[in-house]
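Incident log, structure service

09:12 report received: a user says their structure output differs between two submissions of the same chain.
09:20 pulled the input from the user's history:
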Amino acid sequence: MFVQPSSFPQLYVAGVPQGYAASTSGGGAFIGCMQDFQVDHKLLLPQDLIREENQGLEIGCSKRDWCEDDPCMQRGQCVDMWVRPSCQCHRPYYGGRCDKEYPSWTFSHENTTSYVSYNISETHGQNFTVSFLLRSLKHNGLLLQLHREGQPYLTLYLKEGTVAMYSPHTTLLSEAKRVTDGSNYLVAVQVQYGHVVFPKAGHHRALGNVSVEAGDVAYVGGLPAGMSTNAWGGNMKGCLQDIRLDHKHLTTEGLPEGVEVYQASTTQNVLPGCHSDDTCKGQPCFNGGQCQITWNDFQCNCSVKYSGLLCETRLWCVDHPCSERVRCVDLQDGYECLTEAIFQDNALQYVANSSLLSPVTDITMDIRTRDQNGILLRAASRAEVFCLGLLNSSLLVKLDSGPSAELLAFTSDRVIADGAWHHIQLTMVEPTHSVSRWRLTVDGQRLGGSFGVGGNLNFLNDTNVWLAEKYTGCLGDVRVGGVYLPLIDVPDAPQMSRFSRLGGHEPIIGCQGSPICDSQPCLNQGVCQDQFNEFNCSCSAGWEGALCELEVNECSSSPCGYGTCQDLLADYQCACHPGYTGRHCEDELDNCLEFSCVNGGTCMDKGGAHTCACPRGYVGKRCQWRFPPVACDADTTCLNGGVCIGGDSGGNCTCKPGYTGARCETEIDECESRPCLHGATCLDRLGHFQCVCVRGFSGRVCENNREEHTERVPWLVVTIPLTTLCVLVAILVVFCMVLTARKKRQSEGTYSPSSQEVAGARLEMGSVLKVPPEERLI
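09:34 re-ran on a clean worker, output below:
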């Protein structure tokens, strides 16, 4: 409460005392902050408060983020109410912090028959909503059915994984979204005045006249004995939670006070909570796989040598049965050792021993060669013949599948002996028929086929097959009826359908041609590109030819339009004719751009040359002379001290320094070229200029920075004395060394009186101090 303003006897802000609350319609006190509060343009400040009537007011505006710590536990949306958080819970959660959950029920647990029935005690009319949470892996089943007087009038069920609705008054209605992947889905269906609305899908359809009346019965998850659910895909299997009809909760147990419910009237085999079947009790995993329950399903954790949903597939390649440089591929019942190999007229022979389980209706092969002729695959048995080979670099097929069929022979429309890899496929056009036309494709493109019809090649199951006869090149994946012909010997392959090698020289693993680029055949820095037993030279700029042996004549294309071309290495140069310019002499010069006529003359460009068309009274190349010439007489006056000098072309003025013009009438502006530096001001003088320098600069054009000289002076002051001192010290040291050397020289040499005197003294002392005779004891 504030002290009394001029307009009101009392003023309450953000709330009123308890005695006035019944007279207000605002719905409660204000919660929040206020600033710049005015009444009658008068600012009311906190010090104007009547302290004893102040309740819950704080100075300032401090605010805590109540939603920062996620009080709703990611189960709802937090709303900051200024003094506390408020949680708008997602279904099926409720409570002040969404910490509670509406119960769920498991239907058809362990394949039992279950359902729940509810007696509807209120009329919901034509506008109602059915909603619940669903978790299921069964794609079909009854969810909810409404009965009146023993007859169903509305059915909600699962159809191929989607929620569908049926009424006797309409056709099938369904939502497009699949909801049977084991996750929780909120399903909501609204009925409004004869139309059904799927809110998630955003569309509605006509349903007919349907209303929920008091006395109706709702069945959930199934129907009682004697009522069939086959039309709806059987009973629902999975979990249902938080089932509602409008605001009414359909439940089997008590819910919090204030929640309106329909209690279950009948319950059969419904398990509280959401539970999974024991899907591992039948031990579904093979070969030692460990079964793991994953809610109404299972997962087999297989050992390292097995794979598949039930660990039923053996992984042979983990034992590395193939040799090095060979790729191992697992099959359903075995493995294959895939590789590429080089053949040099060393054929291989195979036999299937009647092991092929499927009809032979196709043959595939990967090939790389430059051999123009050779037999790739051949087999013969009495009346049956098959041959796939090369003829003049193209494919040739001959096929005779028995007496009842005709001999088929056809070739490809494309050369494949080009050193590149190609995938060949020979197939029956109609493999399920006894006879059919055959089609030949290379790299996915149809390149040939038979005009007549022939049977399959099942005789290859019981006869010898020859591979790579009189053939030089590489072969890769070769298959007959989908069964691999191993290029290396694999004696212990366990698969049922297989070809075994009978003999032949072992091919060379890999596919490398001869080292044709080792001799560096390309000249002039060309790069050799190995193309499988052939090479191609990628020439450097300026060279061409098979071996880059020919210099490219860049002038052969006549690039110079109006000029002469000079051939250079990887380039050319154009010498342009007069009047033309440019890289290719394509631009005509305008000679008048660099030439000017004076005295009103007009420049004319003709044939690469220029002339001046002079006005009357002027002649010369640039119209610079008067005609007739003007002599140095009284009519020719030179201004500003200029001197007239006569000649053949008339009188001309020679100007004093500082002036220009035909009569020296114009003073030269020496400041026009801006000679002054560093922001100095230029003053134009007669015949010269003067620079007024800014502070810190000097010189004729203010080119010297006096501050830099000032900074260098202390270093000079220190450096010069130190240098002088060092020179003096060096001179003194040299002088001392010279004196020492001279003294030493005086005491050395061939004759030294001082040393002779010392030696003589030693001799005299030696004669005086003689050693006494030696005494011996007898």
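09:41 both user submissions now match this output. Likely a transient worker issue. Closing.
09:42 reviewer note: The CA atoms of residues 464 and 704 lie 104 Å apart. Residues 1-62 form one domain.
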